[in-house]
Amino acid sequence: MIKTPRFLFPAAFTLTMLTAWALPAGETVLQIDPAQTHVAFELGSLLHTVHGAFQLKRGGLRFDPANGAASGELVVDARSGESGSAARDRKMHKEILESERFPEIVFRPHRVEGAVEPQGTSHVAIHGTFSIHGGEHEMSVPADVQAAAGQYAVTAHFDVPYQKWGMKNPSTFVLRVNDNVEITVHTIAHTFREVSRN
Question: Whole-model pTM?
């Protein structure tokens, strides 16, 4: 949870992300702990890189290991974004994210590509819809999953092309910044229950 500049996202993801992952037999329901979730963003420029973070409001997922189908959502509080500079953060919220108007950044997974082992490390891609600043965007998020005893530690990293998605680039004549923001999400998901297929 820590990275970036003045506006951005995560995302979720933020971006979240996360996922699911699952266990043998039946559909698995996972709960994501906001207190154990870190949504960081990073924006590079010619002079320096800005780091910041957002807070996860809530998150939950359902996952079927038989076919990869997934549902649920990870919801980030857009108004929680901060980068360590009050002036920069005001600009981010007022001019870039417009976070009072669009207070949530949401990632809704549709499908998990790749097998998740009940123990050990897995590498998957989470396909879903990323909603930010009033728009919805299909994306695939690569994620590393470390599983043990019904707990999944997930790390996901992806770029958000905020300018392409209709948000303002804060560059000035003197300072030029990248038009993509890098998002990194670390989270812990716990098995809530398994739902058998009837």
Answer: 0.82
Paired with 29 in beta bridges are 62, 193
Q: Which residue has the tokens 């019904």?
A: 150
| Lowest-confidence pick of 8-22, 33-47, 58-72, 124-138 | 8-22
SS3 92: helix
Residue 147 maps to a domain:
yes
Q: Which of 76, 133, 82 is nearest to 106 (CA)?
A: 76
Instruction: Tell me whether residue 45 is in a domain.
Output: yes
Domain that holds residue 191: 27-195
Residue 31 placed within a domain: yes
Could you tell me where the DSSP H helices lie in 20-174?
86-91
Q: 34 near 76, Cβ under 8 Å?
A: no
Measured in Å, how far apart are the chain's first and last C-alpha atoms? 40
What is the total count of domains within the chain?
1
Per-residue pLDDT band at 173 (split at 50, 70, 90) = low
In a domain, 22, yes or no: no
Q: Where residue 83 sits, what CATH number does that domain have?
A: 2.40.128.110
Mean pLDDT on 158-167: 94
Query: Structure tokens of 31?
Result: 């709960």
pLDDT classification of 118: cutoffs 50, 70, 90: confident
